[in-house]
Amino acid sequence: MSSTDGPTAGFDAFNASCPSRRLLDTIGDKWASLVIVALGLEGRLRFSALSARISGVSQKMLTQTLRGLERDGLLTRTVTPSVPVRVDYALTPLGMSLLEPIRHLKEWAEAHMAEVDTARAAYDHNQGALRTPR
Question: Which end of the chain is less crowded, N or C, counting CB atoms within 10 A of the terminal residue's CB?
């Protein structure tokens, strides 16, 4: 068995009690993924710049996402004393190691969205046909 086929370092995300499953929940979250890509591609950003870059995220959700990523060691929060206080976010080396796989996933979604929309429309049409009395 290769290292990609089974548990690594004693962790197995297929096991419900494995802590790696919680990490997958975090990095699989759409807001976390978008924060990682934004910081990875644009570098150090302030909260307001992240909020503007990631359309649709609420301040509360962005705050929770940033705190979770900081707790997991994926980004740093740097406070610069000034008036007003300046707070910047940047990926750590651990966070940077996630950039490529998550960026590729984002790009895959963008490249294949038309095909997914077509599949969804066909599925919805077929489900409607199955439910329509004849």
Answer: C
Q: Rounded distance, CA 41 to CA 43, Å?
A: 6
Assess contact for 34 and 51: CB atoms under 8 A: no
Look up the pTM and report it: 0.81
Q: How many CB atoms lie within 10 A of CB 66?
A: 21
Gap between the Cα atoms of 78 and 69, Å rounded: 14
Could you tell me the domains of the chain? Answer: 19-131 (1.10.10.10)
Walking along the chain (134 residues) 10 residues at a time, the average pLDDT comes out as 57 89 89 96 95 96 96 96 92 96 93 95 85 63
